[in-house]
Write a structure and sequence with these properties.
Number of strands: 4
Order of helices and strands: EEEEH
Structural class: alpha+beta
Low-confidence stretches: none
C-alpha cells in the first residue's frame, strides 16, 4: 500500500469557529492509515499497543 494517494493538506485551527480550516500558508500533508490496509501498518499498530500497554481503541490517533 502506498500512502501518497491518500495524502491530504493539513488543516489548522480556525480561531472563529474552533474547528479545522484549510490554510493558505501551511504546506504540510498527511494521511491516516488503518491497520487493515497493510500488514506493515498492522505490525506497527501492534507494537505501539505493546509498548504503550494501551489497546488500539484507547489510543487517540487524531481522527
Amino acid at each position: 500500500m502506498q500512502a501518497k494517494p491518500r495524502m491530504e493538506s493539513s488543516a489548522v485551527a480556525d480561531d472563529k469557529t474552533g474547528g479545522l480550516a484549510a490554510s493558505t500558508t501551511r504546506t504540510s500533508t498527511g494521511a491516516f492509515l488503518d491497520e487493515s490496509q497493510d500488514e506493515v501498518v498492522a505490525a506497527i499498530e501492534k507494537r505501539v499497543a505493546q509498548v504503550t500497554m494501551l489497546p488500539k481503541r484507547e489510543r487517540r490517533l487524531g481522527r
